[in-house]
Specification:
Layout lengths: L1 E7 L7 H16 L7 E7 L13 E7 L2 H7 L3 H10 L9 E11 L8 E7 L7 H17 L6 E7 L14 E7 L2 H7 L3 H9 L12 E8 L2
Antiparallel strand pairs: 1-3, 1-4, 2-3, 2-8, 4-6, 5-7, 5-8, 6-7
């Protein structure tokens, strides 16, 4: 199964309440008509994410299909064209982006709507080959992160290798997704030795010369 993660920012002049309501109620029903769609989750940035200014995204949309072949077929349908047309009603098209990824579950566990979802947008360090980056992230760094006791679930979404063909570079090399019981639990996790070990390891594979962006969300499982 493959997953598309779409990075979403509301269109200029639209307030957050209006944006969130339209995304959950109007747009969601259009997306669920897509043929071949297996799962659809909206991840909305929480209000506290705006205390110090605008976050990089107001949320991400995650959709799952059985294969990239099914995804391509879906993109040729009238239902897909309806989704794209409706995005103009609430999304800033100059800031929208996406990756097509495969999940690697590092810590399995149930999640529920009360939890908070940390979404980190990851770029590999300069000069590191994609294969080496993905192997290190999943094989070395992932197990380190999974040891943080407050983490309930941890999933790495790795960009598919096809995105790099011909020298292309996707917007991000992956997305790290971590669920906690609350923002308080997230803050407590930063005090642990396990967390410090994770941070110390990041320079081995992540571009730490530029702070990697993140958002904290609550999830709405639409399908």
């Amino acid at each position: 199964m493959v997953k598309t993660i779409t990075f979403v920012k509301r269109k200029p002049g639209m307030n957050l309440e209006e944006f969130g309501r339209y995304w959950r109620t109007q747009h969601a029903g259009i997306v669920t008509r897509l043929p071949g769609l297996r799962r659809y989750v909206q991840c909305h940035t929480i209000p506290s994410g705006y205390r110090n200014g605008e976050p990089i995204y107001d949320g991400v949309a995650e959709v799952w299909f059985d294969s990239t072949g099914v995804m391509r077929e879906t993109s040729e349908t009238a239902e897909y064209r309806a989704v794209r047309a409706d995005e103009l009603n609430f999304i800033d098209q100059s800031k929208i982006g996406f990756i097509i990824a495969e999940e690697r579950v590092q810590k399995d566990g149930p999640v529920d709507p009360s939890m908070v979802h940390l979404v980190e947008f990851v770029r590999r360090k300069s000069g590191m080959e994609v294969e080496a980056f993905q192997a290190y992230w999943s094989g070395t760094h992932g197990p380190l992160s999974a040891k943080i006791p407050m983490i309930r679930r941890y999933v790495q979404s790795h960009v598919r290798p096809a995105a790099y063909r011909g020298g292309s570079q996707p917007l991000y090399d992956g997305v790290a997704e971590v669920w906690f019981d609350s923002t308080g639990a997230m803050r407590e996790s930063a005090k642990t030795p396990e967390y410090r070990a994770v941070r110390a390891d990041e320079s081995n594979f992540i571009d730490t010369a530029h702070p990697f962006p993140f958002i904290i969300t609550r999830d709405f499982a639409v399908l």
